[in-house]
Backbone:
């Protein structure tokens, strides 16, 4: 998904995996599947304070629940594996270390299986495929843009340690855009565009749709089915991450994913986008 693991995090994870000897294989007899995610990345995952039919309680945080597309997929996977689902919330940067230390069994957090990540993390088949779009002010200079060259001289902003910021950098290199210092969350970068601090942001389309529902002054200014950002297949898909030793778990998760139709995936994403905008 969005995210590009920082160099420090990659090195730290590699050292931990070496120190831990790759950890033990997942024990299906323990009866639980412990999933890590941020609970701060709508529509994939976000925090709620009231229980309902589509969210899930956060482990160790009474009165807190997590909802979103990732949660729906985690529920379906756990059900297919006949395991009780446990979800832990933590910062994006902490997820790889939590995986390597055994604090969580898998990462389901909109993570893309990039080549760098695959050196230290074993990934499932994709559970969602994404395209990236340019979001700008409805009434701004970029509202009717038809090509990326029109970003020249305009200020873009991305989320720190994610592919969003890398794509802003690309527009600087290729099209003469101006990169602002990245911020820590999608709501923050959306607010920067809304308040004219920045003139555009680049995010995945589902994220953009959720942003627009909460920020009606913004719009998708540019989108295409073509791979205009030259992203790899890994950069444009989301997968479940686990430690490298867990090939059996990988196989079982892939089998579970194979039971989920594309229609079901599309419906779950549509629901997640609407619910995240409704604040539920």
Residues:
């Amino acid at each position: 998904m969005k995210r590009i693991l920082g160099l420090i995090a990659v090195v730290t994870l590699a050292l931990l995996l070496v120190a831990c000897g790759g950890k033990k294989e997942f024990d299906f007899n323990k009866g639980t599947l412990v999933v890590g995610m941020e609970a701060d990345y709508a529509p994939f995952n976000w925090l709620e304070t009231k229980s309902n039919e589509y969210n899930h309680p956060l482990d160790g945080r009474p009165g807190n629940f997590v909802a979103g597309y990732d949660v729906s997929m985690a529920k379906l996977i756990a059900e297919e594996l006949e395991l009780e689902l446990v979800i832990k919330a933590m910062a994006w940067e902490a997820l790889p270390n939590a995986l390597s230390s055994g604090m969580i069994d898998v990462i389901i957090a909109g993570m893309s299986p990039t080549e760098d990540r695959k050196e230290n993390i074993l990934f499932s088949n994709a559970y969602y495929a994404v395209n990236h779009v340019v979001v700008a002010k409805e009434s701004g200079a970029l509202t009717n843009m038809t090509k990326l060259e029109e970003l020249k001289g305009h200020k873009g902003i991305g989320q720190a340690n994610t592919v969003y910021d890398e794509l802003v950098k690309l527009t600087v290199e290729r099209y003469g855009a101006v990169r602002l210092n990245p911020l820590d969350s999608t709501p923050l970068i959306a607010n920067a565009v809304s308040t004219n601090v920045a003139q555009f942001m680049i995010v995945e389309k589902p994220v953009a749709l959720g942003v627009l529902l909460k920020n009606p002054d913004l719009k998708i200014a540019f989108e295409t089915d073509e791979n205009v950002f030259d992203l790899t297949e890994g950069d444009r898909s989301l997968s479940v991450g686990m430690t490298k030793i867990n090939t059996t778990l990988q196989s079982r998760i892939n089998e579970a994913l194979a039971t989920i139709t594309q229609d079901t995936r599309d419906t779950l994403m549509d629901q997640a986008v609407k619910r995240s905008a409704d604040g539920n």
About this structure: The radius of gyration is 19 Å. Residues 108 and 240 are 5 Å apart (CA to CA). The mean pLDDT is 89. The chain is about 35% helix and 20% strand.
